[in-house]
Records
---
Amino acid sequence: MDNNKQRELLGLGLQQLTELVASYDQPDYRAKQLYEALYRQRIAVLEDVSTLPKAWRSELGRAGFEVGLPQIEKRFVSSDGTVRYLIGFSDGQSVETVWMPEGDGGEAGDGSDAGDEETVRKFQRATICVSSQIGCAVNCRFCMTALLGVQRNLTAGEIVGQILAVLNDHDVKLESERINLVFMGQGEPFLNYENFMQAVNLLVHGVGIPESRMTVSTSGIVPRIEDFGSEPVRPKLAISLNGSNDEVRERVMPINRKWDIAKLLSVLRSFPLRNRERLTFEYVLLAEVNDSERNAAEVAELLRGLRAKVNLIALNPGPEIAFVMPAENRVLRFQKVLVDAGIPTFVRRPRGRDIYAACGQLKRTTELVSLGP
Ligand code: SAH
Ligand code: SF4
C-alpha cells in the first residue's frame, strides 16, 4: 500500500481485507464478503454491500472507508464504436481507458467465434485498453502519451477501478460476455510493476477475468521481463520493438540505450512460455524510418527461432508527432517479408482514431466534442 492514510478499499487483496476485518473484531468470512462485493459484484458504494451488517457498514463509513471506484468524467464515442473514457481519481488526476467492442483491435484471422446473427447480437465481445500510469516517462518519439511526461503511478485499486468502471458502464455480465484486457494504455506497466501485478491478481481471482485474456505490453524493461516470467499468474507478453536494429530503435525509443536489442532478445529467448503461448512483437511503422523491406528482413532475422507473432501498426498520427504514416502498400510489403519468413504477422486496424483513442494517442485530449457523460 502506498501509505496508511488510504481509505479506499479497491486494491486491497483478501489478506489485507482479512486484517481490516480483524481490526474491527468481525469474523474472518466478512473479508471474503467484502472481496466478493468489491470485485465480483463491482459495487460502487459500501452502503450497498447487503451481506455485511448495516451497523458495521456505517462504522466503516464513519471511519472514512469507501469503495474508491474512479469516476467516469467524459466519454468520447468513435464512429467505429470505440469509446475513450476519461477516468478521474480522488486526487483530481485523470487517465484514459478505451472500450473496443468486438475484436481486439483487428488481428486478421482472429474472428473464430462469429456465430449466426442472433448469437452475435447477444454475445458481447470487447477489449478494454487499460492505463498503468498517468502519462509515461519512457519518451518514445512517436507516442503522444510521452508528451505528458510521467505524472505518477496508478495504484492497484486505480488500475482495477478503470476496468470496473467501464464494465459497469456497459453492464457487462462476465459469465456470458467475453472481455479481453490489454495493458496498453497510458504508461509503462513494468515501471509500475508491483501495483500492476497486484491488479492482475485481483482481476483474475476477484473480478474473474482469466489471465489468458490479458496481454501486457512493455517497451522492454529487461529486469522486469525476467521477473514477469516467474509469476505464477500472469498475462501474455507483448514487446514494443519498433526498430529492426539498434540505430533505428534508439532513434525512436531512447530506452534502447539502456536495454538494447541484444539484451532484450536475450531475456526473451529464455522467457518461459506456456503451452501454445507466443510472444507478441509490436512494430509501429514510421514512413522512411523503419518501414523498408530491409527493416522487415532484419526483424525476421532477430525473431528467428522465437515462438512469436508480429503486430504491425501504421503510425497513428497526432499533433506534435514528427513522423509520417506509411502508405498501405509499404505496410503490406513489410508484412509479406515477415510472413514469407514464417512469422505470423498481422496488420492492426486502428480503433477510434477520430477520437484520439488509438495506440499512442492517449494524452487526455479533451478539445473534442464530448458526448457524455
Ligand atoms: N508503454 C507500453 C504500453 C502502451 S503503448 C509500450 O510501449 O509497450 C501500446 C502500443 O502503442 C505500443 O506497442 C506502442 O509502440 C504503440 N504506439 C505508441 N505510439 C503509437 C502511435 N503514434 N501510433 C501507433 N502505435 C503507437
Ligand atoms: Fe510510454 Fe509506451 Fe508511449 Fe513509449 S509507447 S512513451 S513506453 S506509453
Note: The chain has a mean pLDDT of 91.
---
Amino acid sequence: MPKEHPHIVIAIDGPAASGKSSVARTLARKLRYVYVNTGAMYRAVTWLALEKGVPPLDAGRVQQLLHFTEMECGVRDGESTILLDGVDPTPHLVSEAVNGNVSAIASIPDVRRLLVKKQRAYAFDYDVVMEGRDIGSAVFPETPYKFYIDASAEVRALRRARQGLQDSITSRDKQDSTRRASPLIIAEDAHVIDSSNLTVEGVTGEIFGRLKQKGLPLGEL
Ligand code: DC
C-alpha cells in the first residue's frame, strides 16, 4: 500500500443488483470499518443535475455545476454520507429519474476524477469497505483485497423487483461496462464470487475466508 493510503481498503465491485451493497455493509459492520457506497456519490451528482435542470448528457454544464457546488463527503454511524450545498440527497437517490440518468453522469471523466479523489480521501482516515464498479481496477488498484460479486441477470432483476424499485439494470450495466472512463471490469487480481445461489452471509463468509488466507488480521471473526 503506498504511504498516502496507510489504511486497509477492501474493494467490492460488481454489476447492478449483484448483492454487493448488502455484502459490503455487512462486512464493514463486522470488521468495524467504514462502509463507503460510491454508487451513492454518482447518484447524488445525478440528482443534483436533474434538480438544477442540467442535462446529464451535457458534460460541460455538469462540470460547471459541480464547480459551483460544495460537496462534503463524511461518515456517520460507520457509513459514508454526502451533502451537496448542505443538502442530503439520500431520499432521492433510488428514484426512477436517477436510475435512468446515473450511467450518463458516471461516464463523464471530470465527474469521475472529482469523485475518485473524494473516495481515495476516505482511506487517509479510515479502514474501509468500498463498493462500486472501479474500486479494484481504478480507485485502489494497489489494494490486495479485491472482490467482484456477480449474479445471473435473472437473479439480479428479481432482486430489484423484490426491492420494489424501477431500475433498468440491463441497460445500466451495458452503459457502465462500455463507457470509456473506468468501465466496469473484473480487476485481474480480484476474487470473483457468483452470488446467484448464495445468501449475504454465504458471500460474506467466502470473503472472510479469502481475507484470512491473505493474512488480514480478523481477530475473533
Ligand atoms: O451501485 P449503484 O447501482 O448504486 O451505482 C449507480 C451507478 O453509478 C452505476 O450505474 C454506475 C455508477 N458507478 C460508477 O460508475 N462507479 C462506481 N464506483 C460506482 C457506481
Note: The chain has one domain: 9-213.
---
Amino acid sequence: MVGRSSRRELIATRYLRHDRALTNQALERLLDVDDIEDIEGANDNAEEAVERTISLHDQRIDAVVAAIKNSGARSVLDLGCGSAKLMQAILANTSVEKVVGIDVSYRSLEAGARRLHLDTMTPRQRDRVELLHGSLTYRDRRLEGFDAAALVEVIEHLDPSRLESFERVVFEHASPRAVVVTTPNVEYNVLFEGLTPGTMRHADHRFEWTRAEFQQWANAVAGRRGYAVVVSGIGPDDADVGSPTQMAVFTK
Ligand code: SAH
C-alpha cells in the first residue's frame, strides 16, 4: 500500500516534465546534486530565520513580480525556481500566460509541484505552468523564446568559476527581453541579529557581494550582452549599508 505522503510524491513526480536521460545521468555526473539538495533542505530555514524580522522574502517576491509586470512579459522563466514561490505569485497576480521554472534540485521541484498543486490543476491552468529539471550553467534550448527571466537569490549559489557560462546560458542563448536578478547585499549583514560576523546568510552561498561588486558585475554583463541595467535595493534602506537585497533589472 502506498502511504499518503509517498502517494503525493508520486503524483508530483508524474507532473514534472523532465528528461531523465538528460538530467539524472548528465547532471548528477556533472554536479553534486545530492549536496545541493541536502544543503537546501537544511539551510533554507536558517536563511529565512536570519531575514525574518522584515519578511524580506515577501518583499523580494513583490518587487520581482512588479518588475515582471513592468516589463510587459507574457512568458516568464523562473531560473533556480526552488519550491516555486515566485511562480505561484506570478500565476496569482499577473496575466502572464506561461511560467516555466527550472532547478537543479529535483527535491525542490517536487516541493514546487506540490505548492502549485499541479496534480489538481485544470487543463487550462496546467498549460500555463511547467517545471523543468536542469542546470543554468549548461545551454538548454528549453529556455529559449521567453519574454522575461527571474533569478531570485540564485547567482550566489553558483561557483564564481561558473558565472561566465551562466551568463552565456541566460543572456546569450535564452536571451529574454528582460532579466531580473536578486542577490544579498553583504554590507547589510552587520544589521542581522543572530548572524555571526563575517559569515554568509546561507551555508551554500559561494559569495555575497557588496553594492559596488554587484553593480560592477551587472554593468559588465549588460555591456557585453547588449542590455541596459538598473540596480536598486529591496527592503529597508539603511543610510550606511543600504538594503538587505539588491535587484538588477536588465532590459534589451
Ligand atoms: N528562487 C528561489 C530559490 C532560491 S535558493 C527562491 O527565491 O525561493 C537557490 C536555488 O538555486 C536552489 O533551489 C538551487 O537548487 C538552485 N540552483 C543552484 N545552482 C543551480 C544551477 N546550476 N542550476 C539551476 N538551479 C540551481
Note: The pocket of S-adenosyl-L-homocysteine is lined by residues 36, 40, 80-82, 85, 103-105, 108, 135-137, 152-154, 157-158 (CB under 6 Å).
---
Amino acid sequence: MKLFSSVHDVTDIKALVAEALQLKQNPYAHQHLGKNKTLGLVFLNPSLRTRMSTQKAATNLGMNVMVLNIDKEGWALELRDSVVMDGDTVEHIREAAAVMGQYVDIIGVRSFPGLKNRDEDYNEVIFNKFIEYCGVPLISLESATRHPLQSLADLVTIEELKTKPRPKVVLTWAPHIKPLPQAVPNSFAEWMCRADVDFTIAYPAGYELFADFTKGATITTNQEEALADADFIYVKNWSAYEPYGKVFPGNEDWMLTNQKLKNTNNGKVMHCLPVRRNLELSAEILDGPNSIVVHEAGNRVWAAQAVLKQMLEKLQ
Ligand code: AN0
Ligand code: CP
C-alpha cells in the first residue's frame, strides 16, 4: 500500500481488519520492519487520538516519528498555485511537502475542510497537493471528506465485539453547536457499506450525506425506527452537505439517552471522540455500561499499525 486515503485504497478489507486484531495480540512482533524508517505526522488541525495512536503504532513497529504541527509551528503555507506570494504566506506547499519527503519514509497528513467551498473540499485540494509533491507513501490523518484510520478502527471494534455474524449498525446524527465536517460519517458509511453488517443511517431532514458514500445503506429520518434492535450505535454530528457547511436550528432531541437505548439490542455506543457531553451524547451513556468509546479509541493503535505495516512491507 502506497496511499491510505480511503477504503478504495484497501485491496482486502477483511485481511486488514484481521491484521489489526493480530497486531493487538502481538504488538512488537514486526519491529524489524520499521528499523531506520521515519514516519512524519503533519497536522494542519488539532488532534489527540490520531497523533498519539499513530505515533504509538509506528514505535511498536520500530519506526522513528517526527510530528509537525504545521498550523502552529511551521511557516504559513501557501496552497494556491500561480499567485504572487506577497501576503501572509511564507512557503508554498510545493516546496514544503517535497522537503518533508526528503526527511521521512512515510508521511501522514491531517487537513480538515474549510466548509466554505464544497468543490474545493470534495476535490481534496489540499490533501492531493501533499500526495502530488511529497514523493513518499502517504496516510490520511483525516482529510476534508474522509477519516479512514478512524473508520478502520471502528470496523475493527465492531468485528472484535460483535455477538452475531451480521450485526445491525446505526449511524445516528447528534446535535452540536458548531458546523463539523462530514468526513467521519462519510468515511464510516463508506466502510460499513463494504462490511458484513446491516447498516442504517439516521439524521434529521436536511443532513443528507453525499450519496457516493452511502450507497447500500438504509437511510431514514426516523431515529426511533432506526435504533430498533441496533447492536452498534455510532453517534456523530455533521453539518449539511447542501447548503454546504450549514447547521439548522433545533434537533436537540436527537441526543442519545438511556431511554432511547431501551429499544436497541443492548446496543453498544460508539463515537470517534472528541465528544461534547450532554450536547452530542448524554453523560449517562458515556459513563454507563453501553459505551465503548474508549475501547474504540484504543483500537486506533492497531488500525494505524496494520496500515503502517503494509506500507513498510512495500518499502523493504
Ligand atoms: C472533528 C470532526 O468532526 O471531523 C474531528 C473528529 C475526529 N471534530 C471536531 O472538530 C470536534
Ligand atoms: N477521533 C480522532 O481522530 O480524534 P483526534 O481528532 O483527537 O485525533
Note: Residues 142, 180-181, 183-184, 272, 274 surround N-acetyl-L-norvaline (ligand 1) (CB under 6 Å).
